[in-house]
Specification:
It holds the Pfam family DUF3071. It comes from Mycolicibacterium arabiense. This is DNA-binding protein. One of its GO terms (molecular function) is DNA binding. Keywords: DNA-binding. The protein has helices at about 35-40, 45-55, 60-70, 75-80, 85-105, 120-130, 185-190, 210, 235-245, 255-260; strands at about 5-10, 15-20, 25-30, 110-115, 115, 140-145, 150-160, 165-170, 180. It is α+β, with helices and mostly antiparallel strands and about 270 residues long. The radius of gyration is 52 Å and the shape is rod-shaped. Strands 5-4-9-8-7-6 form a six-stranded mixed β-sheet. Strands 1-2-3 form a three-stranded antiparallel β-sheet, with no helix packed on it. The chain has a domain at about 110-190. The termini are far apart.
Protein backbone atom coordinates (compact mmCIF):
# COMPACT_ATOMS: atom_id res chain seq x y z
CA UNK A 1 0.00 0.00 0.00
CA UNK A 2 1.54 3.28 -1.12
CA UNK A 3 1.33 6.47 0.89
CA UNK A 4 -0.19 9.52 -0.77
CA UNK A 5 0.25 13.12 0.19
CA UNK A 6 -2.32 15.80 -0.55
CA UNK A 7 -0.99 18.39 -2.97
CA UNK A 8 -4.05 20.58 -3.43
CA UNK A 9 -7.30 20.98 -5.26
CA UNK A 10 -7.79 20.45 -8.94
CA UNK A 11 -8.77 23.27 -11.28
CA UNK A 12 -12.47 22.51 -10.89
CA UNK A 13 -12.14 22.84 -7.09
CA UNK A 14 -13.97 19.56 -6.49
CA UNK A 15 -11.18 16.98 -6.78
CA UNK A 16 -8.12 16.52 -4.60
CA UNK A 17 -4.68 16.05 -6.15
CA UNK A 18 -2.50 13.55 -4.29
CA UNK A 19 1.13 12.61 -4.88
CA UNK A 20 2.94 9.37 -4.11
CA UNK A 21 5.63 9.81 -1.48
CA UNK A 22 7.88 7.23 -3.18
CA UNK A 23 7.63 7.82 -6.93
CA UNK A 24 6.10 11.26 -7.07
CA UNK A 25 3.25 9.94 -9.19
CA UNK A 26 0.14 12.08 -8.94
CA UNK A 27 -3.36 10.83 -8.35
CA UNK A 28 -6.77 12.51 -8.56
CA UNK A 29 -9.10 11.83 -5.61
CA UNK A 30 -12.81 12.51 -6.05
CA UNK A 31 -14.53 13.02 -2.64
CA UNK A 32 -17.71 11.01 -2.10
CA UNK A 33 -19.77 9.69 0.76
CA UNK A 34 -17.31 6.93 1.55
CA UNK A 35 -14.48 9.43 1.95
CA UNK A 36 -16.56 11.55 4.33
CA UNK A 37 -17.46 8.44 6.33
CA UNK A 38 -13.80 7.49 6.57
CA UNK A 39 -12.86 10.95 7.79
CA UNK A 40 -15.55 10.68 10.49
CA UNK A 41 -14.04 7.37 11.63
CA UNK A 42 -16.80 5.14 10.27
CA UNK A 43 -15.90 1.78 8.80
CA UNK A 44 -16.00 2.26 5.06
CA UNK A 45 -16.16 -1.44 4.37
CA UNK A 46 -19.41 -1.80 6.31
CA UNK A 47 -22.48 -1.88 4.10
CA UNK A 48 -24.48 -0.05 6.75
CA UNK A 49 -22.18 2.98 6.87
CA UNK A 50 -21.70 2.87 3.13
CA UNK A 51 -25.47 3.09 2.70
CA UNK A 52 -25.61 5.99 5.16
CA UNK A 53 -22.82 7.81 3.35
CA UNK A 54 -24.56 7.47 0.01
CA UNK A 55 -28.03 8.32 1.35
CA UNK A 56 -28.48 12.11 1.64
CA UNK A 57 -31.54 11.66 3.90
CA UNK A 58 -29.49 10.11 6.71
CA UNK A 59 -28.73 12.63 9.45
CA UNK A 60 -25.15 13.70 9.81
CA UNK A 61 -23.61 13.96 13.28
CA UNK A 62 -23.84 17.73 13.10
CA UNK A 63 -27.56 17.53 12.34
CA UNK A 64 -28.13 15.10 15.19
CA UNK A 65 -26.38 17.39 17.66
CA UNK A 66 -28.27 20.42 16.38
CA UNK A 67 -31.61 18.75 17.01
CA UNK A 68 -30.55 17.54 20.44
CA UNK A 69 -29.28 21.00 21.36
CA UNK A 70 -32.63 22.47 20.26
CA UNK A 71 -34.49 20.36 22.83
CA UNK A 72 -35.22 17.04 21.13
CA UNK A 73 -34.48 13.78 22.87
CA UNK A 74 -32.35 11.02 21.30
CA UNK A 75 -35.46 8.85 20.99
CA UNK A 76 -37.30 11.57 19.09
CA UNK A 77 -34.39 12.14 16.71
CA UNK A 78 -33.94 8.44 16.04
CA UNK A 79 -37.63 7.93 15.37
CA UNK A 80 -37.91 10.96 13.10
CA UNK A 81 -34.82 10.02 11.07
CA UNK A 82 -35.53 6.29 11.02
CA UNK A 83 -32.07 5.36 12.33
CA UNK A 84 -30.87 3.26 15.22
CA UNK A 85 -30.99 4.85 18.65
CA UNK A 86 -27.43 3.75 19.38
CA UNK A 87 -26.11 5.86 16.51
CA UNK A 88 -27.96 8.94 17.76
CA UNK A 89 -26.88 8.46 21.38
CA UNK A 90 -23.25 8.33 20.35
CA UNK A 91 -23.38 11.90 19.05
CA UNK A 92 -26.05 13.16 21.47
CA UNK A 93 -24.17 12.46 24.69
CA UNK A 94 -21.87 15.54 24.68
CA UNK A 95 -24.80 17.80 23.78
CA UNK A 96 -26.92 16.39 26.60
CA UNK A 97 -24.11 17.22 29.00
CA UNK A 98 -24.08 20.75 27.61
CA UNK A 99 -27.82 21.12 28.20
CA UNK A 100 -27.53 19.77 31.73
CA UNK A 101 -24.75 22.24 32.49
CA UNK A 102 -26.81 25.15 31.15
CA UNK A 103 -29.76 24.16 33.35
CA UNK A 104 -27.48 23.96 36.39
CA UNK A 105 -26.09 27.43 35.69
CA UNK A 106 -29.61 28.83 35.27
CA UNK A 107 -30.61 27.72 38.78
CA UNK A 108 -27.86 30.00 40.15
CA UNK A 109 -29.11 32.99 38.13
CA UNK A 110 -31.31 35.75 39.56
CA UNK A 111 -34.93 36.20 38.44
CA UNK A 112 -35.69 39.56 36.86
CA UNK A 113 -38.85 41.30 38.12
CA UNK A 114 -40.35 44.70 37.38
CA UNK A 115 -37.98 46.45 39.81
CA UNK A 116 -34.86 44.53 38.72
CA UNK A 117 -33.07 41.27 39.57
CA UNK A 118 -33.80 39.66 42.91
CA UNK A 119 -31.20 38.87 45.56
CA UNK A 120 -32.26 35.22 45.81
CA UNK A 121 -31.31 32.81 43.06
CA UNK A 122 -33.82 30.97 40.92
CA UNK A 123 -33.28 27.74 42.84
CA UNK A 124 -33.76 29.45 46.22
CA UNK A 125 -36.92 31.22 45.04
CA UNK A 126 -38.49 28.11 43.53
CA UNK A 127 -37.62 25.98 46.57
CA UNK A 128 -39.28 28.49 48.89
CA UNK A 129 -42.46 28.51 46.81
CA UNK A 130 -42.69 24.74 46.53
CA UNK A 131 -42.14 24.25 50.27
CA UNK A 132 -44.92 26.74 51.01
CA UNK A 133 -47.22 24.65 48.82
CA UNK A 134 -46.34 21.47 50.69
CA UNK A 135 -44.20 20.06 47.85
CA UNK A 136 -40.70 18.63 47.86
CA UNK A 137 -38.25 20.93 46.03
CA UNK A 138 -35.96 17.96 45.37
CA UNK A 139 -38.70 16.21 43.40
CA UNK A 140 -38.18 18.47 40.37
CA UNK A 141 -36.53 18.17 36.97
CA UNK A 142 -34.47 20.89 35.27
CA UNK A 143 -33.72 20.96 31.56
CA UNK A 144 -32.45 23.52 29.04
CA UNK A 145 -32.08 23.92 25.30
CA UNK A 146 -30.73 26.53 22.93
CA UNK A 147 -33.11 28.48 20.68
CA UNK A 148 -32.48 29.60 17.13
CA UNK A 149 -31.47 33.04 18.40
CA UNK A 150 -28.74 31.48 20.55
CA UNK A 151 -30.51 32.10 23.87
CA UNK A 152 -31.21 29.36 26.37
CA UNK A 153 -34.67 28.27 27.49
CA UNK A 154 -34.81 26.59 30.90
CA UNK A 155 -37.66 24.28 31.85
CA UNK A 156 -38.70 23.30 35.36
CA UNK A 157 -41.10 20.37 35.70
CA UNK A 158 -42.70 19.10 38.89
CA UNK A 159 -45.68 17.03 39.95
CA UNK A 160 -48.45 18.21 42.27
CA UNK A 161 -50.88 15.44 43.07
CA UNK A 162 -51.84 13.91 39.75
CA UNK A 163 -51.07 16.98 37.65
CA UNK A 164 -47.81 17.55 35.79
CA UNK A 165 -46.64 21.17 35.84
CA UNK A 166 -43.98 22.98 33.81
CA UNK A 167 -42.54 26.48 33.89
CA UNK A 168 -40.18 28.08 31.37
CA UNK A 169 -37.55 30.80 31.82
CA UNK A 170 -35.18 32.62 29.49
CA UNK A 171 -31.61 32.31 30.75
CA UNK A 172 -28.98 34.96 30.00
CA UNK A 173 -25.52 34.01 31.31
CA UNK A 174 -23.52 36.83 32.82
CA UNK A 175 -21.71 38.09 35.88
CA UNK A 176 -22.91 37.03 39.33
CA UNK A 177 -24.68 34.03 37.83
CA UNK A 178 -26.63 35.81 35.11
CA UNK A 179 -30.37 36.43 35.01
CA UNK A 180 -33.53 34.51 34.19
CA UNK A 181 -36.79 36.00 32.94
CA UNK A 182 -40.20 34.28 33.31
CA UNK A 183 -41.47 33.10 29.94
CA UNK A 184 -44.98 31.93 30.90
CA UNK A 185 -47.57 32.39 33.66
CA UNK A 186 -46.35 29.41 35.67
CA UNK A 187 -42.83 30.82 35.77
CA UNK A 188 -44.06 34.29 36.71
CA UNK A 189 -46.08 32.84 39.59
CA UNK A 190 -43.06 31.00 40.94
CA UNK A 191 -40.86 34.10 41.14
CA UNK A 192 -43.62 36.50 42.24
CA UNK A 193 -42.72 37.87 45.70
CA UNK A 194 -46.41 37.93 46.66
CA UNK A 195 -47.03 34.30 45.79
CA UNK A 196 -48.30 33.56 49.35
CA UNK A 197 -51.16 36.04 48.99
CA UNK A 198 -54.28 34.57 47.38
CA UNK A 199 -55.62 36.64 44.51
CA UNK A 200 -58.55 38.88 45.40
CA UNK A 201 -61.75 38.12 43.55
CA UNK A 202 -64.89 40.22 43.44
CA UNK A 203 -67.79 38.49 45.16
CA UNK A 204 -71.21 39.12 43.63
CA UNK A 205 -73.98 40.11 46.10
CA UNK A 206 -76.23 37.25 47.09
CA UNK A 207 -79.89 37.83 46.10
CA UNK A 208 -82.29 38.42 48.98
CA UNK A 209 -84.49 35.56 47.80
CA UNK A 210 -81.63 33.17 48.56
CA UNK A 211 -80.72 34.56 51.95
CA UNK A 212 -84.29 34.62 53.28
CA UNK A 213 -85.48 31.30 54.57
CA UNK A 214 -88.52 30.11 52.73
CA UNK A 215 -91.44 29.38 55.03
CA UNK A 216 -93.07 26.03 54.36
CA UNK A 217 -96.59 26.28 53.01
CA UNK A 218 -99.29 24.17 54.67
CA UNK A 219 -101.56 22.13 52.45
CA UNK A 220 -105.11 23.29 51.99
CA UNK A 221 -106.69 20.48 53.98
CA UNK A 222 -104.66 21.29 57.09
CA UNK A 223 -104.67 25.07 56.82
CA UNK A 224 -104.88 26.70 60.23
CA UNK A 225 -107.75 29.13 60.91
CA UNK A 226 -106.79 32.77 61.23
CA UNK A 227 -105.91 33.83 64.74
CA UNK A 228 -108.41 36.20 66.44
CA UNK A 229 -107.47 39.83 66.37
CA UNK A 230 -105.82 40.90 69.57
CA UNK A 231 -107.29 44.07 71.14
CA UNK A 232 -105.16 47.11 71.42
CA UNK A 233 -103.60 47.88 74.84
CA UNK A 234 -105.87 50.92 75.30
CA UNK A 235 -109.00 48.84 74.68
CA UNK A 236 -107.79 46.23 77.16
CA UNK A 237 -107.44 48.92 79.86
CA UNK A 238 -110.94 50.27 79.19
CA UNK A 239 -112.40 46.78 79.38
CA UNK A 240 -110.66 46.11 82.69
CA UNK A 241 -111.93 49.41 84.17
CA UNK A 242 -115.46 48.77 82.94
CA UNK A 243 -115.77 45.42 84.68
CA UNK A 244 -115.50 46.83 88.27
CA UNK A 245 -118.06 49.54 87.43
CA UNK A 246 -120.62 46.94 86.50
CA UNK A 247 -119.82 44.99 89.62
CA UNK A 248 -120.59 48.04 91.83
CA UNK A 249 -124.22 48.45 90.55
CA UNK A 250 -126.96 47.69 93.20
CA UNK A 251 -129.49 45.03 92.49
CA UNK A 252 -133.18 46.20 92.45
CA UNK A 253 -135.00 45.73 95.78
CA UNK A 254 -137.77 43.13 95.93
CA UNK A 255 -140.93 44.47 97.78
CA UNK A 256 -142.11 42.59 100.78
CA UNK A 257 -145.26 40.45 100.61
CA UNK A 258 -147.39 42.63 102.88
CA UNK A 259 -146.53 45.63 100.76
CA UNK A 260 -147.87 43.87 97.73
CA UNK A 261 -151.17 43.07 99.50
CA UNK A 262 -151.64 46.61 100.84
CA UNK A 263 -150.54 48.21 97.54
CA UNK A 264 -147.66 50.13 98.97
CA UNK A 265 -143.92 50.11 98.35
CA UNK A 266 -141.44 49.59 100.99
CA UNK A 267 -139.73 52.77 102.01
CA UNK A 268 -142.60 55.05 100.81
CA UNK A 269 -144.71 57.30 102.97
CA UNK A 270 -148.42 56.32 103.49
Amino acid sequence: MRELNVVGLDIDGKSVICESAESGEKFLLIPDGRLHAALRGDRVGSSKFQREAEDPDVLRPRDIQSRIRAGASPEQVAEAAGVDLARVERFAHPVLLERSRAAELATAAHPVLADGPTVMTLLETVSTVLISRGLDPDDTNWDAWRNEDGRWTVQLSWKAGRSDNVAHFRFSPGSHGGTVTPFDDSAAELVDPNFHRPPLRAVAPVPAAITAEAEPELPLEVAMPPAPAQPEPQEQEQEQTAKPARARRRKPEVPAWEDVLLGVRSGTQP
